[in-house]
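Figure caption, in words: inputs first, then the predicted bound structure.
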Amino acid sequence: MTNFLSVKDAGNINELISSANNFRINPFSQQSLGRGKRIGLIFLNPSLRTRLSTQIAAQNLGMEPVVFNASQDGWSLEFEEGAIMNGTSVEHIKDAAPILGRYFDILGVRTFPSLKNKEEDYNEYVLNQFVKYSGIPVVSLESATVHPLQSLTDVITINDYLPLQTKMKPKVVLTWAPHVKPLPQCVANSFCEWINAWDKCDFTITHPAGYELDKNFTKGAHVTNSQAQALKDADFVYVKNWSSYRDYGKIEDNDVNWMLTKEKLSPSNNAKIMHCLPVRRNVELSDEVLDSPNSIVTEQASNRVWAAQSVLAQILKDLP
Ligand SMILES: NCCC[C@H](NC(=O)CCC(=O)O)C(=O)O
Ligand SMILES: NC(=O)OP(=O)(O)O
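Bound structure (N~2~-(3-carboxypropanoyl)-L-ornithine present):
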């Protein structure tokens, strides 16, 4: 593995899951793999889980992680080719990224979408420039359109429960939830493309009209505007808000009735509840759901370490 930017870089998903499961049993089994190697973790946006789990994963592999909160502590970066830099941006990515490439063996980058320029966001304008100019393997720590370390974690978490399932394929539902802010589509896009590629689940997406996701990510999934219909017999319910893809970055209609409650889950198959976190309690999901034994969000977040470790191990093995 060279880069880890989306499901396309994952190779065999089941092998990544199995490697993650091995690290969960024995976190320090491959300490020599990363010895003498350094990973730079560059954050252009806030993070709790990704920042900490990736540091822990790197340390478990014997690597040294260096975290840089670029948006707070670094010079303001310019990404536009040919820009006349007489404004607020101080340093061009063409100058900064090659230096990161000399300091580190692997680079992790978190960069959210602008939610203003759909074309730039969906072309991964920022992340791709880190890839182009750093010259070293790049791991997405969540980008404009996808969050592959989160999605790998999500399939690892679902996989843990597969032996308990009686159906050939468990019913996995991604439900839109209300929010106070317009959020990226990336966690939802990414979950869709990983669940589709993994192909072990019967997958339904439900959202109010106007929140259709980009078909490049969802194709193959059942899509319905009826949350009640989607939740019926569900084995896993993944809750997430996203802003409109069509009317890009806008809140079409923040229907509070879409908040997930215990009552709505009663026709489900005692569904496990998932969310990438952070979550707005009693806006996206009720306390009752989040605090119930069906919620596996803490377990899910704890799997972030093993997902990151399996990816970093694969990249380390393939370093030139
Ligand atoms: N990294 C996990 C999710 C990040 C982001 N959530 C947020 O920005 C939440 C912000 C808030 O709740 O104010 C998202 O949905 O893509
Ligand atoms: N789920 C997730 O990526 O969390 P952070 O934004 O805290 O890293």
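Residues 7-146+302-318 form a domain with the Rossmann fold fold (CATH 3.40.50.1370).
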